[in-house]
Amino acid sequence: MEESRPAEPSPDELDDLALRAAGGDREALEDLLAAVQPRVRRLCGRMLLFPEDAEEAAQDALLLVATRIGSFAGRSRFTTWLHVVASNSARSTYRSLKRRAAERPTDELPATADPRTTSVIAGSRLDLLEALEVLAADRPELVEPLVLRDVQQLDYAEIARVLDIPLGTVKSRIHSARAAVRPLLRVTD
């Protein structure tokens, strides 16, 4: 009796596909991209709430996976590497949407959204994404650990592996990042 294949490959299967793709196996790359597409959409959707914006970020992330798979060395899980790529893609898409919105006349923006908490640009948490931009300007080394922990929900050990820094440094950076963004996230009346 043949067992049906699960909808989403296991982390071990993804690691195997990714290593084969990194080694130049074109078929493995195509299988990998097809397998991770739903996950990438979910990851981008955690930061960009409008489906169209999350889809744009997801497509950019998948393109990055395809073009940069050779840099995946297997030091961490592929899914951890993928979280970094998707998070960075979502933040990049947000910055692009923000630039495009700044170029539009203000009468084209909806007047009903609360600009302190919801982006009329991307339907995302404007306060969070703006806080990350402020943090990136002053302390860029704090942004990625914070996003990987608090947005993408990776554990500390995974973050340490993917960023190739000690666990204590990860915890310290996340603590510092939270302290830095906390006042930026407060909504005032």
From TrEMBL:
Domain RNA polymerase sigma factor 70 region 4 type: 144-180
Domain of life: Bacteria
Record carries keyword DNA-binding: yes
Pfam families, per database record: Sigma70_r2 (PF04542), Sigma70_r4_2 (PF08281)
Segments forming domain RNA polymerase sigma-70 region: 34-100
InterPro entries per the UniProt record, alphabetical: RNA_pol_sigma-70-like, RNA_pol_sigma-70_dom, RNA_pol_sigma70_r2, RNA_pol_sigma70_r4_t2, RNA_pol_sigma_r2, RNA_pol_sigma_r3/r4-like, WH-like_DNA-bd_sf
Keyword list, A-Z: DNA-binding, Sigma factor, Transcription, Transcription regulation
Keyword Methyltransferase attached: no
Protein family membership: Belongs to the sigma-70 factor family. ECF subfamily.
Protein known as: RNA polymerase sigma factor
Organism from which the protein derives: Nocardioides abyssi
